[in-house]
Design goal:
The protein is an alpha/beta fold. The protein contains 14 helices and twelve strands. The two termini are 50 Å apart.
């Protein structure tokens, strides 16, 4: 079957708090209300992440203009360690899992000390062996995004993680997320089938991190067996900042979660058999062999004495040729369902 573990839905707040802790806390409320399993932020120190001269990505320029460098932009979107502590305990109170993606070793250490239990490695860091191995050494479950990657690059990163885990005898799970790192990503670029390629190639649980507009593609990923779905959301798409445009608003996030939960229920165990609720319909909707005229006791049944009608409570239509030539054990009135007990061999 599709496995009983329910789809783990991560509401990705990212930097959509715009550097403001109150907005971040509101995002926690919204993710919890929508029914997400986890909310995820991003932990970075801008000067450890980009050089002063790093340009902004095209989508960043489109969404917030090109007046400042990527460094200046990110500086405004940073939260402090104290902010993260507050968020961590607030999530615990709200009963939603706190996650944040560390972009450097010190940030990973801070999140580990805080008690964060699942580490997320973002697509952009898949070639960053030191950071990947530093995170793997925490001996906690890891979710690895694979946007922009070839299969052999994913394989390298997986090997780096298991090199560490095999040494420590830690066997937690690694989950791979298929992802297309464009904001927004277009349906024609998504290549959802690549998610199953990851599953088959590595024998690991897989999921999908989504940057498309709308909710149908993550729902489709869930139907294809994604164990993890990650989706950006914001309080309001019209806020200023790089990621709001490609994010869901709270009511859309709620609709996505609800749809995924429905799809998950609908997957079932894959055994082709009638549902319990179909049993009654089965008898009514199927047909039986029925008498076309009054049959007297001792009559031989001819082909044109038989008509095939509902309900399906009598002899199955497939036996029409078998009962031809048999005799009526008793008289049967017209338009009655024929039973085996009504007949005997000629």
């Amino acid at each position: 079957g599709a496995g009983k573990m329910k789809t783990f839905i991560i509401a990705e707040a990212g930097v959509n708090h715009n550097g403001d802790i109150d907005t971040a806390l509101k995002l926690v409320d919204m993710a919890e209300k929508a029914g997400a399993d986890a909310i995820k932020f991003q932990t970075f120190k801008s000067e450890r992440l980009v050089t002063r001269s790093t340009p902004k990505a095209k989508y960043q320029k489109a969404n917030i203009g090109s007046g400042e460098s990527q460094l200046e932009m990110l500086k405004r979107l940073e939260l402090t360690n104290d902010n993260f502590k507050r968020l961590f305990y607030y999530c615990r109170k709200k009963n939603i899992i706190f996650m944040s993606t560390p972009f450097d070793e010190k940030s990973a250490d801070m999140l580990d000390r805080l008690g964060m239990n699942i580490f997320k490695i973002p697509s952009g860091e898949i070639t960053n062996k030191p950071l990947i191995q530093h995170i793997a050494a925490k001996n906690k479950p890891v979710i690895l995004s694979t946007g922009m990657s070839y299969l052999n690059e994913v394989e390298k990163a997986v090997r780096w993680i298991y090199d560490i885990w095999n040494k420590s005898g830690f066997n937690q799970q690694l989950t791979l997320l298929h992802c297309v790192s464009n904001y927004p990503a277009h349906a024609k670029d998504v290549n959802l089938c690549a998610m199953n390629t990851l599953k088959v190639s590595f024998g690991l649980p897989v999921g999908y991190s989504d940057h498309t507009l709308g909710i149908e593609i993550p729902i489709a990923a869930a139907a294809m067996g994604a164990k993890v779905i990650e989706k950006h959301f914001t309080l309001d798409r019209n806020m200023k900042g790089p990621d709001h445009k490609a994010s869901l608003e709270p009511d859309e996030l709620k609709a996505m979660v609800k749809a995924i939960r429905n799809v998950e229920k609908a997957m079932g165990d894959g055994i082709k058999r009638p549902a319990e609720s179909e049993e009654e319909t089965r008898i009514i909707a199927r047909r039986s062999l029925v008498t076309k005229r009054d049959i007297k006791k001792g009559d031989v049944i001819r082909s044109d004495d038989i008509i095939i009608k509902r309900p399906g409570s009598g002899i199955l239509p497939e036996f029409k040729d078998i009962i031809k030539g048999m005799r009526a054990r008793k008289s049967i009135i017209a338009d009655s369902v024929i039973k085996w007990g009504d007949l005997k061999d000629a």
